[in-house]
Design goal:
Number of strands: 3
Structural class: alpha+beta
Order of helices and strands: EHHEEH
Number of helices: 3
Shape: globular
Helix content: 40-55%
Strand order of the largest sheet: 1-3-2
Distance between the termini: 48 Å
Length: 65
């Protein structure tokens, strides 16, 4: 019997962003603090929308051209 794949997350935890961007925890929080990477809190949990990570990467790529 086939099982459904889990849905793709819409928001990532900071450690997941660290893995995705290959950055340190402090660098991810620096990006959040400087508004270069959008995020939100839910209770005490900090989350970063997947689209915000993609947008950050798009901007970085455009800057490097």
């Amino acid at each position: 019997m086939a099982t459904a794949l889990p849905p793709t997350p819409e928001a990532l935890k900071v450690p997941e962003v660290m893995t995705a961007l290959r950055l340190s925890r402090s660098k991810v929080y620096d990006l959040i603090r400087s508004k270069q990477l959008e995020s939100f809190t839910s209770g005490r949990a900090r989350r970063v929308p997947v689209d915000a990570v993609r947008e950050y990467m798009r901007i970085r790529i455009e800057e490097s051209d």
